[in-house]
Amino acid sequence: MAITDPKEMFDVAGKVALITGASGAFGMVAARILAGAGCRLVLSAGSADALGEIASECRDAGAEVVEVNARPSDEAACEAMVEKAVAAFGSLDILVVASGMNKVAKIDEMPVESFTGVMDANVTQSWMLARAATRVMKAQGAGGKIVLVSSARGLLGHPAGYTAYCASKAAVDGITKALGCELGAQGITVNAIAPTVFRSPLTAWMFEDTEEAQKVRDGFLTRVPKGRLGEPEDLAGPLLFLASKASDFYTGHILYADGGYTAG
Q: DSSP secondary structure string, 148-203?
């Protein structure tokens, strides 16, 4: 196939995208980049105020936006989000699962409920959303793009009480690879973006000009070839790639947005 217009490879204008966790750090990146690229958006989040803010920002960028003030907490909620996209825009082309959570505690101090809560939010809900989207995308017969959110911690351990988080992200990697194999023949690609530490409300303290933050940064940056922590915009390019036809031959892939952290 001749490439006559490279820009066309990344063109998602008019596509319908469902983004869960749209008020979170990665969800907002996804909403902004896909709104700017011309997608029609269904944005889901648990906080009505935060959801309204990102939805308003996307509308100001020219996007059509439907708000769903809900979390993908169970099977019915996941199915309803996908149905909302189809009802509003007639199809679903892109799913971005940016919802999730973490609870940090040493294993001998972590309640079982905390472990299972992280696994449910990061693994089960990702699986349920992917299942709901797959059913619609198969019925449409035009393929689709599913993007999950993993982490460098799906590959690497962490000494500070991350057993639940590391296990959950390793499971997301497994879902990504298995679904990539399962759905490839239907033209549905399933990939994951796996960042390391990047600026967000949860990590803001690491970017502060304090002795404690500097100490933590210095220790962390010895493992990052790029020599800095991640910024939200570092996730925008990978997301657009995985949501567009530019990535049609990529599936079951874990794309590490980590400045080289996992390479060393």
A: EE--GGGTS--TTT-HHHHHHHHHHHHHHHHHHHHHGGGTEEEEEEEE-SB-STTT
Residue 218: inside a domain, yes or no? no
Question: The domain containing residue 133 runs over which residues?
Answer: 11-201+233-258
Task: Compute and round to an integer the Cα radius of gyration of the chain.
Answer: 18
If residue 43 lies in a helix (H) or strand (E), which one and from where to where?
Answer: strand 40-44
Q: What's the distance, CA 24 to chain centroid?
A: 10
pTM of the model: 0.94
Cα–Cα distance between 255 and 147 in angstroms, integer?
10
**Rounded CA separation 215/206 (Å):** 9
Question: Is residue 264 situated within a structural domain?
Answer: no
- Exposed/middle/buried for 41, CB within 10 Å: 0-12, 13-18, 19+? buried
Note the pLDDT tens digit of each residue in 138-189.
999 999 999 999 999 999 888 888 999 999 999 999 999 999 999 999 999 9
Q: What is the CATH number of the domain that holds 109?
A: 3.40.50.720
Burial class (CB in 10 A: 0-12, 13-18, 19+), 111: exposed
CA distance from start to end of the chain: 36
Look at residue 174 and tell me if it is in a domain.
yes
State which residues of the chain have pLDDT below 50: none
pLDDT in tens, 85-107: 999 999 999 999 999 998 989 99
Q: Which residues are catalytic?
A: 165
Distance CA 240, CA 116 (A): 32
Domain count within the chain:
1
Give a yes or no: residue 168 inside a domain: yes
